[in-house]
Design goal:
Layout (H helix, E strand, L loop, with lengths): L9 H9 L4 H17 L5 H28 L21 H26 L2 H22 L3 H22 L4 H24 L1 H6 L5 H5 L1 H24 L14 H13 L5 H28 L1
Helix pairs in contact: 2-3, 2-6, 2-7, 2-12, 3-4, 3-5, 3-6, 4-5, 5-6, 6-7, 7-10, 7-12, 10-11, 11-12
């Protein structure tokens, strides 16, 4: 059935705006940070849960901001290759999407208030800059090819190290190291997105990293980031920062290989499948890491 305003309910339209397929990426860093907190004996349920909910809300708010502000600045067109944008399609008005965005960020801020009471004012800095980055991403950040850096910092470093911190009230070397593979896997979501949209972005004068580097180099970037994410674990095991059981993450390699083949051989709209697949890789990777941690503690 064709997606039109006539056959979509309001709930379905808001689900389109929220983009559920992007949400696994938001949870991956929190799962990894919580796994490390559990391994070190500093796991705390409610701060971990709050960090998870807060990360999901920030991702939803970012998606809504991206939807409405891309439309308002004329960066969207009917020729877009990605999933439907509700503002551009006329399913929701810009005011409705902006209202939803601010409500989502307000809820994230309430979560942040709780985490500040638990872990101190450093969380305020992380939360405020995350919201500002989410709003600014649609414009100066993404247009200048800086999206990769911001995604790595917030979905990798802030998510993993921040989640560990709100439970342990300190950081750990393992958390800093594990923020690298998680951050790189999530950056790869952006790499696929920009690879898919490279021609559309060129036409809109949107200078992403993919536009700067071209298709062959962007594909190589994807493979390099994917490779580092998997090869870093043996190093951490050798450094005694992670137990050998965490090599369970390598069970996700068949999926990673399948998605990589799509990235290497497809262009345009077929890359939507690789986009969703890359998000799944980050989530499955983090879950398998958590399982490895549990087995290391139990056996």
């Amino acid at each position: 059935m064709t997606e039109t305003p006539q056959n979509l309910s309001k709930t379905q339209i808001w689900l389109l705006a929220i983009r559920p397929k992007t949400l696994p990426a938001a949870g991956a860093g929190v799962i990894t940070g919580t796994a490390l907190a559990y391994y070190d004996g500093v796991f705390s349920f409610f701060p971990a849960l709050a960090a998870f909910i807060g990360a999901i809300l920030l991702q939803i708010g970012s998606n809504l901001a991206n939807d409405v502000y891309d439309y308002l600045r004329g960066a969207e067109s009917k020729e877009r290759l990605g999933p439907m944008r509700v503002t551009q399609a006329g399913l929701l008005t810009p005011k409705e999407v902006q209202t939803g965005m601010w409500i989502t960020f307000a809820l994230a801020a309430l979560i942040g208030v709780y985490l500040i009471t638990v872990a101190g004012w450093a969380i305020l800095l992380i939360g405020l800059t995350a919201i500002l980055a989410a709003i600014a991403y649609t414009g100066p950040i993404s247009d200048k090819g800086l999206g990769d850096i911001f995604v790595f910092l917030y979905f990798g470093v802030a998510a993993v190290v921040g989640t560990y911190y709100v439970q342990a009230l300190k950081t750990s070397l393992a958390a800093w190291w594990m923020s690298v593979p998680i951050g790189l896997l999530i950056v790869n979501i952006l790499v696929v997105n920009n690879l898919r949209d490279i021609d559309v972005d060129k036409a809109a004068n949107k200078i992403t990293m993919a536009v700067r580097m071209g298709i062959p180099a962007t594909r190589i970037e994807y493979l390099i980031l994917l490779g580092i994410s998997y090869l870093i674990l043996p190093l951490l095991i050798w450094m005694r920062l992670a137990p050998v059981w965490t090599l369970l993450v390598w069970l996700s390699l068949p999926l990673a290989w399948k998605v990589a083949q799509t990235v290497l051989n497809e262009t345009g709209r077929p890359l939507n499948e690789a986009l969703a697949g890359t998000g799944k890789i980050s989530l499955i990777y983090s879950i398998l890491f958590f399982v490895g941690i549990l087995l290391a503690k139990l056996l």
